[in-house]
Structure formats: structure tokens, C-alpha cells
Amino acid sequence: MSALRRAARPRGTSMRDALYEEPGPRTRRKIVIGTVLSALLVAAGIAAVVRQFYVTGQLAPRYWSFFLEWTTWRFLLQGLLGTVEVAITAGVIALVLGLLLMLGRTSGVAPLSVVCRVVTDFFRGVPSLLLIYFFFFVPAQLGLKMPSFWMLALPVALAASGVLAEVFRAGVNAVPKGQVEAAVSIGLSPAKIMFKIVLPQAVRYVIPSLIAQLVVVVKDTTVAYVVSYPDLMQNARVLITSYDALVSMYLVVAVIYILINFLINKASVYVANRTGVKIIR
Amino acid sequence: MAQQAPGEKNVPIIELRHVDKYFGDLHVLKDINLKVEKGEVLVVIGPSGSGKSTMCRTINRLETIDSGEILIEGEPLPQEGKDLTRMRAELGMVFQQFNLFAHMTILDNVTLGPREVLGMGKQEAESRAMELLKRVGVAEQAHKVPAQLSGGQQQRAAIARSLAMQPKAMMFDEPTSALDPEMINEVLDVMVELARGGMTMVVVTHEMNFARRVADRVVFMADGQIVEEGAPDEFFDHPATQRARDFLDSIKGH
Prior knowledge:
The structure holds 2 protein chains of 2 kinds.
Chain A: H1 3-8, H2 15-19, H3 25-55, H4 61-64, H5 70-105, H6 110-125, H7 128-141, H8 148-174, H9 177-185, H10 190-220, H11 232-243, H12 246-274
Helix pairs in contact in A: 5-6, 5-8, 5-11, 6-8, 7-8, 8-10, 9-10, 10-12, 11-12
Chain B: E1 14-23, E2 26-36, E3 41-45, H1 52-58, E4 67-72, E5 75-76, H2 81-89, E6 91-94, H3 106-116, H4 122-136, H5 151-163, E7 169-173, H6 181-196, E8 200-204, H7 208-214, E9 217-222, E10 225-230, H8 232-237, H9 242-251
Parallel strand pairs in B: 3-8, 3-9, 6-7, 7-8
Antiparallel strand pairs in B: 1-2, 1-4, 4-5, 9-10
Helix pairs in contact in B: 3-4, 3-5, 4-5, 5-6
């Protein structure tokens, strides 16, 4: 209970340490055996995959040699740039819109609250592909010309904003009631309580979920082919047709996506650690 | 300590008239009538669940009431909006769990109210905050965050945060109940100083020695009612009701 005791808890105490007790000698032996067995299984799996590649001829030079050409990489990098542009735009819009939807929903103004709730649930419930089709067909029918960039960025952002609104709301609800009571007691207005006391703490609680959602945004942009926007995936498809090399190309693209999302993770952990004061409870 | 300048009109700072409150079917406050005069130190004691915390929290509307009236300096406590916000700024509140803003340094905790509510400049707010922190003995901790402080230090910082608003009166809702025993006195000492300085105080507590030493008046609550009230010596030495005698007996020998 006491804050001193809480603060004195050794650093590095994580959820894992809290959930599992320190293993005894027998458990440690089991862990070693388990580790060795699973490592062997993984190695065997990889060997089987490589063998299968070999047997089916996927290791043939004609499936891989074009990766030695600069033009291949330049085309892929152009796609990567497209992915990054669209993902960042969609991510920023989604964060702002999600925050606004949450603020509206928790505002206490009944009509606004209901509208924001319906909008949130709608965007959260509709598959992003459906939203992309909407932006692909509907503006065109109304005679509006929309660049393919926005036909992709907007629906991906809208879909994510619904989820982010709920993520922010979970964070706001996680801020202890006493924080608000103390703020109320020194005479802060409701708006100041939200922006000075509640939100700064709420955002820190939900940073892991925010990251997860930004990864989803990046993955959502891979349906760019629907609106023929040249992102990484779309350019990869072009290369697949021209070199007739499906497996090798998808393998390389998958690795690139994994790297992007790994970087998002690293960057956000770095940012989270740098947001100054950490909340210890 | 309830000195009244001769000729000054005798309007209580806080007055509760026939206050009733329910939590669902539970009648938690039953016809509470209470006056707190300027400069008076009122200590509220009673068994847990007697409604003393709830009563304390109704005074700045952290808890709403179902009927009756609460008057602050003769004016009804506003129900909402800017008037309520302004009134709350004039009443200090110290919580059992300290409730320091977890993401701010101690100094920022103390300057936030004066800067955002009283419109004070940064420099003035900080120099006054440092003075208050010195007064409660946590000036060295000014640039730490709450989690780095002991409970006693946090509670003293919370008192400084409240004082920074220059309140007309302060409510203390079991301020030492969440503290380790060795830290209780450092907080009580600060409160004794405040009482000596003439602060109007409503203190909900289990610290009987503090009540006896500092209170101008003791209010004993049980089952949502004020059962007995009087001067501390009178109450502790010659309780008039059986309820109060039972309560005092039950906490004796500690």
C-alpha cells in the first residue's frame, strides 16, 4: 500500500515476474530440456522448408538473381516510400480523430456523446477493405476526383480511429478517480482536468496498445492494389508478374514488413521511455 | 481557537442543515446539522462506515446530497459550473491516498492550481510553492515525482498543494490512515502547525491524541448520524452516550 514500499520495488519487475514464481531446481531442469527440444524442432522445421524449396525448384537462380539488380531494389524502395507516406498520414489522422471521438464520447454532452459513440462503433466494426471500396467507388460516382493516395489513407485512418478512440477511452478510465478528485478540489475546470491531469496519464497507460494499432495501420495499407496506389505490396506484385517469381518476392516483402513493424516497436518504446516522468503505482 | 472579533457578524464558514444522503437503499447521512466557525478545528471521529468521510466529501460536492442544505459563508454551495469550481478552489481538501498528480513533479503539483486557477505567474507561483514546501518540510523533494517520495512526504506535499490555493477552510479525509506508523506524526505535526496558525479545519481521523490536543470541538458519528459533539476533554473523559463509550472502549489499549 505505502508509496515508499511501492517505489522501493526493484526495477525490472515486470508482469512476467509478477505472474510466475522463481523456478526451483526441478523446474529449471525441465526448462532446459524444453528449450533444447524446441530449438531442435525449429531447426528441423527450417531444414524442411529449405529442402521443400530445393525440391520444388524455388532456389533456382532465376527466382533470386534479379535481387542483385539495383532497379529491383529501387522499385521496391519507391513502394516502401509510398507505404511509409500513406501509413504516417493515416496514422496521424487516426490518432487525432480517435482522440476527438473519445473526447466527444466522454464529454457528457448527450447528443455529441451518442454521435461519437455511433461513429466509433461504425468505424470499428466495418472492415477497412469495405471502407476502401467506398472511397474508391462513391466519390467517383459523385464526379469527385480523389487521388489514390487519399483513397487509401482516409479509409485506413477512419478504420483505425474507431479502435484508437476506444484505446484512449480505456486509458482515461484507467486513471485513478483520486487524480480527478484532487484536480476538482483545487478548482480546475473540466477541460483543464482532461488536458493537464487525465490525458497525459492516460496516454502513458495505453502506449503499448497505440503501437499495436499503428502496426495494424501499416498492414492495412497493403490493400493498396484495390486503388492501384504504388505501395510496397503493389510494386512487389508488379515485379512478381514481370519476373514470374512469386514465392521469393513475397518472402522478401514479408521480411521488409516485419522490419518496419519491428522499427515502429523500437521507436515507440524509445519514445515512451523518453516522455520524462514515468508513472509508478 | 475560535476567536471572533467583537462586532463581526457570526456567519459560520461551513454549515450543513438537515443533510441526508443515500447510497441506493443505504441511508449514509441522516439529518446532519453542523456548523464550523472561522478558525475552528473540528475533528470528526467514529467507527468505519459511520459516514464521516462521506460527510467531509459533501462539503465540496465530491459527494452529492439528496436533501438538506450546505452553506459556505452563508451562501448555498453551488450545484455546478463555474460557481462550483470557484467555490472548490476556496476549500482545501486533503485525501487519505494523497492523490498527488502522478505525472508531475512535487513543485508542479503545488504550482498548478495557483497558475491555472488563480492566474499567478510562474515565478511567483514557484517561489510561493517553495516556501510552502519548506514549511511542510519537503523542499528537498520539490523536483521529484510523487512515487519517489514516502507516504508521509507525499501527504505533506499534498497539504502544501492545498495551502497554495489560500483556502478559507481545509478538509482532511483520514489524512494519516494510509501511512506507515512512523510517518503519521510528521503529517500530524504539520496539521498542528496549521491549526495554531488559525486555519479553519474539518478533520476526519482515527488519531485520538491529535483530536484531544488540537480539536476545538469533537463530533462523534455512528450509522450516518451525529451522535454526540462537544469539547474534546469533555467528550473523551465523560462521553454522554453509550455508543460513544463503546467506541472509545473499543479503541483503548492501543
